[in-house]
Write a structure and sequence with these properties.
165 residues; alpha+beta; 4-stranded mixed sheet; two-stranded antiparallel sheet; 11% strand; globular
Amino acid sequence: MSRLALALCALLSGCSSQVLRLEPRWAPLVEVVERPALVLSDEASTTLGNRIYVVDLSGWERRYPEGSPEREGLLLHEQEHARRQAAAGLGRWLVAYLDDTDVMWDEERRGWALELRHLQRSGRPVNPEKIAAILRGYRNLHGRMVSYPAALAFVRAVLAGAPDP
């Protein structure tokens, strides 16, 4: 097992304060777990294996109310990560995601495309500039995942119906 995988196991081994069980339709995801030490920002949702980790579960539930298109879209996004992690192996996926900005961008494009399309189908307004700014903020061990112009072009392509932006 790599050092990164061992460090991850150590981070995950402690107790969490809150857990929200997910319906079976979100498999392989099983729950949303409050784990402040693992997540980088209050707004972030981080999927590792079959769990989504958040800083503040109560705040997460307020931002993503049960049954809302926002929660459904986010869960579609995170479910895609969980499926791809399971297929590749969590350790291998995580090392690639953290070490290669192209891999990270490919993974996030897949998740965000699902989320954005769901929000659009649900009639929710999507602000391409805001989403592009969020995407521009993603970083891994080698730096920024994507530029703002590239992120904005991606969001606009998804919203325009491009099959594989």
